[in-house]
Design a protein that fits this description.
CATH superfamily of the largest domain: Spore Coat Polysaccharide Biosynthesis Protein SpsA, Chain A
Shape: elongated
Order of helices and strands: EHEHEHEHEHEHHEHHHE
Distance between the termini: 20 Å
Strand order of the largest sheet: 7-5-6-4-1-2-3-8
Number of strands: 8
Number of domains: 2
CATH topology of the largest domain: Spore Coat Polysaccharide Biosynthesis Protein SpsA, Chain A
Largest sheet: 8 strands, mixed
Radius of gyration: 25 Å
Structural class: alpha/beta
Length: about 300
């Protein structure tokens, strides 16, 4: 039988993990033609997530886990799970049950049809803040316009992938990862399935507005240099306007004599140019910062404990 690895990043999920594996096992029991193995990644949780994972590993022989030395982030956790997977197919999903396990049969059917990946996107973000929904929609629209990597509005990490596609993803050794983009960048045939978002019933979300903003910024800078081109064009336009203004001022001076410049006009011009310069330096700093971090060549994660070695 084919083996399907289920990669599950976990950060402070002690409350939901027992319910997650219980609900997922119910779905797995209805799919008899495949073997399933869990690969939980404890991303430096501050609660009893690791203790719960040890209990689950003792109770279920197919429950494996990797525990990080500290919190490295969800992207690193997903990479670790994919790197240690050996299954014919690999499913990536969250532990909070907002990625419904009931979609497994439909996802498996998609890859068995010949697709390399079967991915999901949210139809309606039920129970989510309307402002966050609007910002998410704006991000996907902006990202798709400035980048060659296209993602459907509402695309999530929840998906099943072939072994070949997984191997291609883990071969990308960049440290600052944006998996939603990487999944699309590697190519391969992907079948997109719409699903209804499920409200979280246990625990609380770990994503603050600021962390989502930084995540979106990573996505934009990882797959597009459009912001750099924008400030270059903006600089050219401002320089052209300034040159025209200089010519106009010289002509006025020659014809009408020296005039006392307006205080408000000067102040507005200085503040405007100062803002443009600060913005330009900030955009450049984002890209230079990414180069700086990548050049250090530090590991994407550090594993402190795992029971995957028990299979050897």
């Amino acid at each position: 039988m084919k083996l399907i690895d289920i990669v599950v990043p976990c950060y402070n999920e002690e409350e939901v993990l027992p319910l997650f594996i219980e609900e997922t096992n119910k779905v797995i029991a209805t799919i008899p033609d495949y073997d399933f193995r869990y690969i939980f990644i404890n991303d430096g949780s501050k609660d009893k997530t690791l203790f719960v994972l040890r209990e689950l590993a003792a109770k279920y022989s197919n429950a494996k886990y990797i525990s990080f030395s500290r919190n490295f982030g969800k992207e690193s956790a997903m990479y670790a799970g994919l790197e240690h997977s050996t299954g014919d197919y690999v499913i990536v999903m969250d532990a909070d049950l907002q990625h419904p396990p009931a979609m497994f049969p439909q996802m498996i059917e998609g890859v068995e049809e010949g697709y390399d990946c079967c991915a999901l996107y949210r139809a309606k973000q039920k129970g989510e803040n309307p402002i966050r929904q609007m910002i998410s929609k704006m991000f996907f629209g902006f990202q798709n316009k400035i980048s060659d990597v296209k993602m459907p509005d509402g695309a999530v990490d929840y998906r099943i992938m072939s072994r070949q596609m997984v191997d291609s993803i883990i071969s990308l050794c960049e440290k600052q990862r944006f998996s939603k983009g990487l999944f699309c960048w590697v190519g391969y045939q992907t079948k997109w399935i719409e699903y209804q978002n499920v409200e979280r019933t246990v625990g609380t979300t770990k994503w603050s507005f600021w962390s989502l903003f930084k995540y979106a910024l990573d996505g934009i800078t990882s797959f597009s240099v459009t912001p750099l081109r924008f400030i270059a064009v903006l600089g050219f336009v401002i320089s052209a306007l300034a040159f025209i203004w200089i010519i106009i001022t010289l002509i006025q001076t020659l014809i009408m004599g020296i005039d006392v410049p307006g205080y408000v006009t000067t102040l507005c011009a200085v503040l405007f140019m100062g803002g443009i310069i600060e913005m330009s330096v900030g955009v450049l700093g984002e890209y230079i910062g990414r180069i700086y971090i990548e050049s250090k060549d530090r590991p994407i994660y550090i594993a402190k404990e795992t029971n995957l070695d028990d299979d050897k």
